[in-house]
Amino acid sequence: MNIQHSLLSLYPRPWRERYEDEVLVMLEQHPLSFTDGVNLFFGALDAQLHPHLGTTGMPLYERLVHMFSALRRSLLAIFCAYVSFILAGLAFQKMTEYADFQEAAQAHTVIGLSFHLVVLGAIVALLAMLAGGLPIVVAVARSALIHKRPGSLFLLTVPILAFAVFLGTTVLLNAIDRPGTLPVWQLLLYRGFFFGMLIAAAIVSAGSVCFAVARSEVPARLLRFAVLPSVLATLSMVLILAATITWGLGLRDGAPQLFAGNAGIVGTSTIGTWLGIVIAMAVATLLAVLALLRALSARAALRTATA
């Protein structure tokens, strides 16, 4: 596969079915330049963010189905980005629970204020996700009961089961984790297993919910409504990211010894832990923003098509 086909494969399927042959003919007549490659890449990004592009020739019913599918996938992508963001937020919470960080927050206004903004943003994001997600979960459960699909109901219970397994693992590790009495390699193994179980539980939980929603009948009005809380949740993620960056910069200026020390998670570098958290939050936030733009575009296209 040459670079032209690789770039065109980034476009949505409806767009490729309508325009790919024409573009390939044009590219065969003129060699692909660097500028053309950049334009094709950003064109693919634009087409992905606007799923109605390329659907003009579709019958109305097929166009509506495509838009609803794009809206559903976009909302699920926001949910997955939020779950990833939570993991980074838990790491931040774990690091800042130590007394040194609490004292720094009390002594320096920037550190304390930014920390409170993180907490506020986390609460708002959680409430927004619940407002948009719970009606969809209820609709999935109702659809499973009506159509007698026990598999979908089981998928909705997987997060509870995953949390129970993770909680049991945590209790077990706390019982055997005795700093100072175990070899360093064994402590690292236990803590690595803890973080691995946490990540695995998050992935399994998010995946099961997404699969349940994807295979169920969800009323269109619930999907359209969920976009509005998703806007609030995504803005909250942006706020938390900005506050976390400000917190780290404030810590560097207000408590440089603490910032340059090894007060990170499990005794790692404070700077390294903070940078890792910021990068993880930034990636999750970027994915949420892109998915939100796609959801807003699909929602607007649906409103136009059904007007």
Element order: H for helix, E for strand: HHHHHHHHHHH
How many helices does DSSP assign? 11
Principal-axes geometry comes out as: globular
Distance between the termini: 42 Å
The number of domains:
2
> What low-confidence regions span 5 or more consecutive residues with pLDDT below 50?
none
Oligomer: single chain
User: For the residues shown, what is the average pLDDT?
Assistant: 88
Topology summary:
Elements lengths: L2 H6 L4 H17 L4 H16 L10 H37 L2 H9 L1 H38 L3 H27 L7 H31 L5 H35 L1 H4 L10 H36 L2
Helix pairs in contact: 4-8, 4-9, 4-11, 5-6, 6-7, 6-9, 7-8, 9-11
Tell me what the structure shows.
The chain is mainly α. The protein has two domains: 3-49, no CATH class; 76-305, no CATH class. It contains eleven helices and no strands.
Task: Describe what is shown at a glance.
The protein is mainly alpha-helical and 307 residues long.
Quickly list its features.
11 helices; 307 residues; mainly alpha; 0% strand
